[in-house]
Amino acid sequence: MNNTLALIKPDAMQKGFKDKIRKDIMENGFVIVEEKTLNLSIEQAEGFYAIHKDKPFFGELVEFMTSNETHIMKLEKENAVVEWRDLMGATNPAEAESGTIRAKYGTDISMNATHGSDSNENAEIEINFFFKDL
Ligand code: CMP
Fold first, then answer.
1. Which residue of 23, 74, 107, 121 is surrounded by the most CB atoms within 10 Å?
2. For residue 2, what are the CA distances in angstroms to 88, 120, 122?
3. What integer pLDDT is reported at residue 132 of this predicted model?
4. Is the entire prediction scored with pTM above 0.70?
5. Is the shortest distance between the CB of 128 and ligand 1 below 6 Å?
6. How far apart are the first and last CA of the chain?
7. How many CB atoms lie within 10 A of CB 59?
8. pLDDT at position 134, please?
9. pLDDT digits over 94-114, tens only?
C-alpha cells in the first residue's frame, strides 16, 4: 500500500464540493487515513509550495490558498500517487479529462479544486508537512 497527500482547495471548499470530492475518493478505492480542515496561514502556504517560490504565479497561489479553508487528507491505496493524480485529471481543468475531479469541480489553472503529491518521495514530505504532529 502507498500513501499520498490530497488537498481540497479553497475554491472547492467555498463552493461546497468537499463531500462530493470525498465521496469520489472513497468510491475509487482510497482509504482516508487522516484528515483535517485548516485555514492555511501565509507561512503554511508559502512553506507547502516552497518549490514554486520563483514562479510568476507564486503570489497568486499563496493568496488563493489562504483565502478560505483547505481540507487535507492522507490517502492510502496501491499506487496512491498515480491513482489520485489520474482521478484529479490535468492541472488545468480545461484540459482535464471528462469525469475527473478537476473537470467536474475546477474553475481554472489557479482554482483547480484539488492538489496531489507528484511522487512517493514528495508524498512523504507533504504528509509530514501537515500531519507530523498528530
Ligand atoms: P497544484 O497541483 O496544487 O500544484 C501547484 C499549483 O500551482 C497548481 O496546482 C496550480 O493551482 C498552481 N498553478 C500552476 N500553474 C499555474 C499558473 N500558470 N497560474 C496560476 N497558478 C498555477
1. 74
2. 17, 8, 12
3. 87
4. yes
5. no
6. 21
7. 11
8. 47
9. 999 999 999 999 999 999 999
